[in-house]
Amino acid sequence: MATKEEETKIIMARAENIQNEKFKEVSFWRKKSFKKELQKWSSYVFLSLLAVVFIVPFVWALSGSFKNLDEMYAMPPRLLGAELKWDNYITAFQVLPFGRFMFNSFSIIILNMVGVGVSCTITGYAFSRVKWKGRDFFFYVMLSGMMLPSAAKMVPMYQVMKLLGWLDTYKPLTIPYWLGLNVFNAFLMRQYFRTIPKSLEDAAKIDGCSSFRIFLEIMVPLAKPAVATIMILTFIYNWQSFSAPLVYLSTYKKFTVALGLRMFQSASQNYTHLLMAASMIALLPVLIVFFLGQKYFIKGIVLSGSKG
Amino acid sequence: MVKPKKSFFTAQDFEGFVYASPWFFGYLLFNVAPLLFSLVISFTNWDGVLSIFDNQVHWVGLKNFVILFTSDRYFYKSIYNTVYYVIGHVPPGIFIGILLAAFLNQKLKGMSIFRTVYYLPNVVGGVATIMMWQQVFQPDYGILNALIAKFLDITQLARVEINLPASLRDENGFFLSFMELRDLGVYGLKAPGWLTNPYWSKPSFLIMSYWGAAGGSMLIYLAGLQAVPQHLYEAAEIDGASKVQQFFHITLPQLTPTILFVLITGMVGSFQIFDSALLLTNGQPQDTTVFYILVIYWYGLQSFKMGLASAMSWLLMAVMIVLAIAIMRSSFRWVYYGDERGGD
């Protein structure tokens, strides 16, 4: 008594056999196996060409970071100049306090990562495991917040920050993350909490566990992978964040890496080669975090797109 | 068991509120407050610098909106440019994303490497990649034009002047052909000026956007593709459906919820193009890259016209809400949730 799946498989195998038998006398080029190979190799060719296209900007910037100014303007453009100019990387740190910028970025990001870990866990838990009046209503309210474009709120937020006196500080860049305002991350945590079986909770309740202890000692440890995911997502998002620091920060000593790169561009002299070197440096932390956390990252994306 | 008293708020309700309170507080402070505040500001003439309690700041009613719709220099231009960008980015982006995901869904070796490569731009994005593209797009010494020159055999990359020869006819009285004119130096085939050319500026931004966003949407489609039940494909193959038919009648319909998600987020995201516009062109050449958020930034933080900036922000939010609702409404016709219950 084969199951439906097995039956299907048997039928398909028979069909393929018949097909292959019919074509046994046909030329090599029409065989099914050849077509499969052809499809496989054409996929590889297409994907590889596209991958090359995707990498070109990185390669070009990398090559630019090793040239001096004249070599950058060389016509026709070459991949590398006379020699690799490693000093560009050092000069970049001397011309602008780039190290300071990186320190600033890291400080903000670490604060945000912790804030997101704490607040989004609490918020996600509130919207998934606790039944309270208005939970679903406010969940939709939270979702609708995601719809509103953040750039459209740029100026209104600036106005509020000015009113609060928080301009030119790091407060507008960090406090929102501590209050669970990061809707996407809270949403992820909620989705994740929904996958935890209720039996765990019930067992703990029977043992007389208070609900706060349930949260602290059961939910939070279980949520560690999801928390890691949102922390990595926060790192990556904050590292590239440009318009928020741009709007709020005005003392250049407080600038982040993104603003620092822009300063190279608007400097009085032409620092294009240094800008390339600085860009490469700016890419490194994000690349490292991405490669280390790839597993969590992809899981996060998948979790957000899953239904329900 | 008889409950002695029935209370409206249970202990669980209270608990839920407590846990959700950081979010409540943040939502009020960072979502509701800015919206309300900027709505009020859009009816005033605040310049963004003086204290709002200053005597010069007063109510002007709908004047800001009137200015925007009648005499403002950038309002309609920015709308045109932004809509151009959104339409140019979202549909092809969806197509590219699905295409890539379909390719990467095969069980071949090395797919994860390709996946990483395509996703990398989305991850590392930001100012660094924008600067990279600025160098790539350089008309005179950038890699893009260098490759174009090499493969299309264009000898000159720089701007070429048009020099008319003494006569457009040769000695026999026939008109000179295009090639002969070129050899005479009348015009030179030149590679595009990209960010410096008014016709190529927005397409340049679009190219950057495909590069940056393809990986992100591809991942989401991959997840959606993998959720398609295999038995559907097997049943179709037995019935004799070709791969193409399978794609259009099984894969695509199953993907429609994912497409809806990417459509909405992509649309909302592409309306906000700002970073690259500010860094690369600041609206030039000839106002062709003046995007909506860029104008809001100019008015709000550079030109001391906070009232106008607030008005523009509010208009944008209103439009986005309407659009999002419209798409969600229309989605009931074309989104197919299959066997499972759709939505939350």
Keywords:
heterodimer, A: 308 residues, mainly alpha, 16 helices, flat, B: 344 residues, 64% helix
Question: What do you see in this structure?
Answer:
The complex is a heterodimer of chains A (308) and B (344). Chain A has 308 residues and is an all-alpha fold. Helices cover 74% and strands 0% of the residues of chain A. The longest helix of chain A has 34 residues, at 32-65. The mean pLDDT of chain A is 83. In chain B, 64% of the residues lie in helices and 0% in strands. The radius of gyration of chain B is 28 Å and the shape is flat. Mean pLDDT of chain B is 82; it is low at 157-161 and 339-344. At the A-B interface, helix 1, helix 2, helix 5, helix 6 and helix 7 of A face helix 1, helix 3, helix 4, helix 5 and helix 6 of B.
Topology:
The complex is a heterodimer of chains A (308) and B (344).
Chain A: H1 4-22, H2 32-65, H3 69-72, H4 87-95, H5 98-128, H6 135-147, H7 154-164, H8 171-178, H9 183-194, H10 198-206, H11 211-222, H12 224-240, H13 243-248, H14 257-266, H15 272-292, H16 294-305
Helix pairs in contact in A: 2-15, 4-15, 5-8, 5-9, 5-12, 5-14, 9-12, 12-16, 14-15
Chain B: H1 11-41, H2 63-70, H3 75-104, H4 111-124, H5 127-136, H6 143-152, H7 178-183, H8 201-226, H9 230-238, H10 243-270, H11 275-281, H12 292-302, H13 306-334
